[in-house]
Specification:
- The protein has 302 residues and is mainly alpha-helical.
- It has ten helices and no strands.
């Protein structure tokens, strides 16, 4: 099958899936408590307008399950569909890059900026700033994780600038999940690099019997600082993107031409800066945890 026929086939499949999704009917399943239409806290968005039956059915499936923090049935789901859209777009872009590299190795850069050039430029940017914070070996080892963060967060941030789209990074569920990934990766590779000696760093630089009270104090300070890292990563990203999204929505609500443009340019800057901040802090946390300060080797490639 030629490349042209493959693209035509992929386009037809996407169009068919989009058409079938519009045919999903609202089953109007009774709710466990009151049987009324499900209240949603999502503001107006294209997902609810184009696929109301799909959204309602998904909310019905989530109705019996309560959230961990508020202990009530979830009332937001639009960001889930937007996140799935982002994943599909990134997978499509990655497929284009894979086919391009397989057909013609990138010895000479393309004359025009396309999907391959965009992915290549961003990947080189991520790898370059990682190499400035850790050695080359660890930078290449952790590059897939940090690059995945960069592509996903930036795509979510930029997609939220489109009127009617809900940025997944403006919801705490998404950002806390990303922060928890950083948390577990950091400590997993910290233990893998240094063994149980990794936890000795929690007791501070002075580890003598006469410094026992100070060691205990430092342990609790370090423990708290490590536990709040995923929260700080998630809340920072969520707060900035939610605030930017709401301010842009307010200016769009004025209905005056060109008035929202300054806020949209500012939102574009915020989207890139918050992606950089999240990835930068993630690299710093991992670099500190896997630093070869005890004569141990960095994580071996598996």
């Amino acid at each position: 099958m030629s490349k042209r026929n493959k693209y035509i086939l992929i386009t037809l499949v996407v169009v068919l899936l989009g058409f079938l999704s519009t045919r999903v009917e609202d089953r109007h399943l009774p709710l466990p408590s009151h049987g009324q239409p499900w209240p949603t806290e999502d503001h107006w968005n294209l997902v609810q307008q184009l696929f109301p039956g799909l959204v309602h059915n998904a909310m019905q499936l989530l109705a019996p399950h309560h959230t961990w923090i508020e202990h009530k049935a979830p009332t937001q789901i639009g960001h889930v569909f937007t996140a799935l859209l982002v994943v599909l777009l990134l997978l499509a872009g990655a497929s284009v890059v894979f086919l391009r590299m397989r057909a013609r190795p990138p010895v000479v850069p393309d004359e025009k900026m396309g999907v391959f050039g965009l992915f290549e430029m961003m990947a080189e940017t991520v790898l370059s700033f990682m190499a400035g914070l850790m050695d080359q070996k660890r930078a290449h080892y952790f590059f897939p994780l940090i690059a995945a963060f960069a592509f996903f967060i930036l795509a979510c941030n930029l997609l939220g600038m489109i009127p009617g789209m809900l940025p997944p990074t403006a919801v705490l569920n998404t950002t806390i999940g990303l922060g928890l990934i950083v948390f577990f990766v950091t400590h997993y590779y910290g233990v893998k690099t240094h063994g149980l000696a990794y936890f000795k760093e929690f007791f501070g630089p002075i580890q003598k019997w006469y410094a026992l009270p100070l060691m205990i104090l430092m342990f609790f300070i370090e423990l708290i600082s490590h536990l709040v890292r995923p929260v700080s990563l998630g809340v920072r990203l969520m707060g900035n993107m939610m605030g930017d999204h709401k301010v842009t929505a307010i200016f769009l609500g004025f209905g005056v031409l060109f008035v929202p443009l300054p806020m949209m340019f500012l939102g574009l800057l915020v989207a890139f800066v918050q992606t950089l901040v999240f990835c930068l802090l993630s690299v710093v946390y991992i670099a500190l945890a896997t630093e070869e300060s005890h004569g141990h080797e960095s994580p071996k490639e598996e």
